[in-house]
Known about the structure:
The protein is of the alpha+beta class.
Amino acid sequence: MNLSIPERVVDYDEKTHSVIMDDGSTIKARILIWVSGVIAVTLDGVPETSIGKGGRIICNQYMEVSGMDSVFAAGDIALTSEDAYPNGHPQMAQVAMQQAKLIATNLNAVANGKERKTFKYVNLGSMATIGRNKAVADIGGMHFSGFIAWGMWMVIHLRSILGVKNKIIVLFDWIINYFNYIGSLRLLMFKGKR
Length: 194
């Protein structure tokens, strides 16, 4: 079957098992895996000329919002680029953490009459866990998979948790879940007020 999809998916009809495209055309499919991208939340007060691709806020090399003074953005909402990332930096935690650290450093520099630094993303690698004992990791030009990558993912994520008590609680939770195959439900639910 030769299938080219020039349009984007907008809906799925369970009754007819059809994927609905934005041009109105449909594609029959009994199983649909729909992966969406990240689109930033729009904020009031940010000039329209400062909004870039995906609704992200365009920032200069100091993470300052384009067209605004002393307003900064970091993380998924910020759109910055450099030679290695001409279409913007990836929307990952490592980028957000490095951007936030730079903003704090620059605010201190300005307060102390020193020169500001520009943002330069340092790629520490990427990891993803896809199940028990299964993960992938690309770190320092090396590729890992399986149990080793899964163990690396756990260690790195455990290190990022604040406080020794919290680390111990999470570690014990992981150990218990590993051996009894019962995963905890990770939802926050609030009872609504009438």
